[in-house]
Write a structure and sequence with these properties.
Strand content: 25-35%
Low-confidence stretches: none
Mean pLDDT: 87
Structural class: alpha+beta
Helix content: 25-40%
Number of strands: 20
Strand order of the largest sheet: 15-16-17-18-19-20
Number of helices: 14
Radius of gyration: 30 Å
Length: 508
């Protein structure tokens, strides 16, 4: 079942204007409109949230808008530049989320995420990441994912939630029917004519005989209804930059057998590697697109930890995912694209008489990353920080060494808890470790201990860190298990029994 994400940017022109203006941009609370010409009139083409809250609307005469809102910021609209920037944003989504992405002018992007959501933690997590990343860049965003482009488009723009996931296999007719007819992507003239006849919602349109609609308005209203409800397919033409490296293979007769697909995949990889070699590049991400005879597009995406031009390695990564492809009634075109490519330099072979080379584990990393998602595969690296939970960061498996190190005078546990967990303790002396402690409902008696190691807070970051003092102890229970516990405070309150103890790590 296909899955389509519609990403809606309601304030795209004004958000882009503010981002382009940088420090000279007006503050968010100041109303801003962008104006252009409608014939001989100067009208509002875009308005930010503050302007809309002040009562300004798209299509309003510019003179009226300035009269209604004193201090209104007015600038000329740039619709062509907005469309070019929207295509650049679509390329960003192509490289990050899925191999089938297209711009949806004037204010959106459509993404076919079939089979790609698990690489981003699921559909809900993927939508949350999209909205958060765009919000961090200054763009307001709403999105929805459904089985059809029409349903996702309608729910992203007219739904009640900023992020909506429609369950797979269910075209949400109950959700779509109450929406206005503008959600069907009909021409403005058609929408005005339908409203004059009393049509307000999709339910009104869906309950009308199709013949009378087609006689009055042509086939467009019926086609949009069928596309939204999944009765007919709506292909997405993926965007491709001009400088991208790609090869393709057309078939006189459609193919569908897995063995045939695998054979032609190997041939396409060979052609692509030859093209990459002439440019001195190696592939970091490959998209293999299958264009079916029914106008649907199936896709496979694989990535590599380092630039790769190895024929067998790339072929294996792609053919491992052929089972996820539904050929339907046949595939008439295959296209292999190096979505991300980086310079690849030849390496000097190391003689057997010289020192041994470091083992190359990138092949294993590629296999695991393409199965579970590259965001879920990482390694830990040290960070300069005295606070233990801040001294660790996640980096890519093949990222170069940061050059940092952890303190060597006191060992650190093999497993550090995400956040310290409170424990109940019995301690006899303020500067000594506890005699017993209870953690997660289990009481443990301490047999051996070492410490304390005093760790101070990072007082230069915030005032609360001035009093953040921890005394860490390495303790071993009667079963030989070792833990890393600490006492919050400097021990002076131990006599009152008000000090608190926490579990922070487990030694291997």
């Amino acid at each position: 079942m296909p899955r389509v994400v519609s990403l809606f940017l309601p304030m795209w022109p004004t958000d882009r204007f503010r981002r382009k203006s940088g420090d000279a941009a007006p503050p968010p609370e100041t109303p801003l409109v962008l104006i252009g010409r409608d014939g001989r009139r100067r009208v509002v083409l875009a308005a930010d949230a503050a302007a809309r809250n002040a009562g300004l609307r798209i299509g309003m005469p510019a003179s009226k808008a300035q009269a209604l809102v004193p201090g209104l910021i007015v600038h000329d609209a740039e619709p062509e530049a907005d469309e070019i920037a929207l295509e650049r944003l679509a390329l960003w989504a192509l490289r990050r989320y899925a191999p089938v992405v297209a711009s949806d002018p004037p204010d959106g992007i459509v993404i076919d995420t079939t089979g790609a959501d698990h690489l981003h933690g699921g559909e809900a997590a993927m939508l949350t990441e999209m909205v958060a990343r765009l919000g961090a860049s200054g763009f307001t965003a709403r999105c929805a994912v459904a089985d059809t482009w029409g349903a996702a488009h309608a729910l992203a723009r007219f739904g009640t939630r900023r992020r909506l996931v429609v369950p797979s296999g269910a075209i949400a007719q109950a959700i779509l029917l109450p929406l206005p007819i503008a959600a069907l992507r009909l021409p403005a003239v058609t929408i005005d004519s339908l409203r004059r006849l009393g049509f307000e919602t999709i339910a009104d349109l869906a309950g009308t005989p199709r013949a009378s609609l087609a006689l009055r308005f042509g086939p467009e209203p019926g086609r949009r209804l069928d596309q939204a409800f999944g009765r007919v397919s709506e292909p997405i033409e993926p965007i491709r930059p001009e400088e991208i490296v790609e090869v393709r293979r057309n078939f006189a007769e459609p193919i569908g057998a897995a063995e045939t697909i695998a054979r032609y995949t190997g041939k396409l990889v060979a052609e692509l590697c030859a093209s990459l070699e002439t440019r001195g590049l190696g592939a970091r991400r490959l998209d293999l697109l299958f264009f079916r005879v029914d106008n649907r597009v199936e896709a496979i995406r694989v990535g590599t930890a380092t630039p790769v031009r190895d024929l067998k390695r790339l072929t294996r990564l792609l053919t491992d995912k052929i089972e996820t492809i539904d050929p339907g009634f046949g595939i008439e075109l295959m296209r292999l694209v190096a979505t991300v490519a980086e310079p690849l330099r030849a390496k000097q072979m190391i003689s057997a008489l010289a020192e041994a080379a470091e083992p190359d584990v990138s092949d294993v990393i590629d296999i695991l990353a393409n199965r579970v998602g590259e965001d879920r595969l990482y390694r830990f690296a040290p960070v300069q920080s005295d606070v233990p939970e801040r001294s660790v960061q996640r980096i890519a498996p093949m990222a170069p060494d940061t050059g940092e190190g952890w303190p060597g005078h006191w060992p650190r546990p093999a497993r550090l808890l995400p956040r310290p967990e409170p424990i109940e303790t019995v301690a006899l002396l303020p500067d000594h470790p506890p005699v017993t402690f209870t953690w997660r409902g289990v009481r443990r008696r301490v047999k051996r201990a070492d410490g304390p190691e005093r760790v101070f807070g990072e007082w230069w970051k915030r005032d609360a860190e001035l009093a953040a003092v921890r005394d860490y102890f390495q303790v071993e229970d009667e079963n030989g298990e070792r833990y890393w516990v600490f006492r919050a405070g400097d021990g002076e309150d131990a006599a009152t029994g008000s000090h608190k103890w926490f579990m922070h790590g487990i030694f291997g």
